[in-house]
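Aim 2 progress update. The chain analyzed this quarter is reproduced below.
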Amino acid sequence: MREPQIVAFALMFAAGTAVLASGGGAPASAEVPYTGRKQVILVPDVVMNLIGQQNYQSVLDSSPIASKQSADSEVLKKVGGHISKAADQPDYEWRYSMIEDPTINAWCLPGGKIGFYSGILPVLQDESGMAFVMGHEVGHAIARHGAERMTENLAVFGGLAGLQAVLDNSSKMSKDEKNIILGAVGLGAQYGIAMPFSRMQESEADIIGEMLMANAGYPPDESIAIWDRMSAIAGPSGPAFLSDHPSNSKRQANLKDWLPRANKRYARNKLTYDTKASIWGGSGSTRSSGGSSSGSTHSSPSGGSSPSGGHN
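Predicted structure tokens:
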């Protein structure tokens, strides 16, 4: 898979140039949902979301995207509708794509652009497993971890004005600058960039994912069980894209600490059907995760699909 291009476009700077130059539009002090950790963020959401949209399209243009009518795409769209509603981000333009690739990976770019790889489906097994992983990836986005990381690396660009100049003339962007941007939006791992989210950010995303899935009506204990399956499929450290993340046992301990709070949310919002009915593996599986069964779909929180045929 080729590396996505990072280029600026008129809409970004029509909306964001003045914000970047002044540092306005994004509070110097922000707060992570649920955990309440205070953050310092200087890069505006309008810039991060547009970078996310652009890189989402670039990944799709260079990846095998399956039919949006496939069974797996329908599950992705269904779970995405529940999680996006729980995330309550009215400014997001949610999109969901299933990528036909054996890699165990998933991501959510700033602004709500979500990609799942067919290789992760046997680990997920069912809707609840997908709900946690999606909630975790959405957690990175709504906690603004990408903007936080960009803020931490502003010195590389020479400050906000330097970041604006780099984005405006991306053809001359250095490898380090490109890696920072790809890492910040959550795409670093799939391009071999050793810039994972910090362990603190990963722990926060786990907590947010557990809360989002509970608010969406999925059983939050699945957030703990999925790490056993990660270890069984890919070894104690999990898949490569988690190689620098907290260990599975530490993640499970953290999730168990938050489980009583999540269970209260689940009790209020429980879905009325069996969300743990096996889909991609285990006893009673209704279909396999073979590449041709994966698909792509794009929907808003209300469930409406985008007009494009395969991706947009």
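The CA atoms of residues 82 and 216 lie 5 Å apart. Residues 248-269 form the longest helix (22 residues). These observations will guide the mutagenesis experiments scheduled for the next reporting period.
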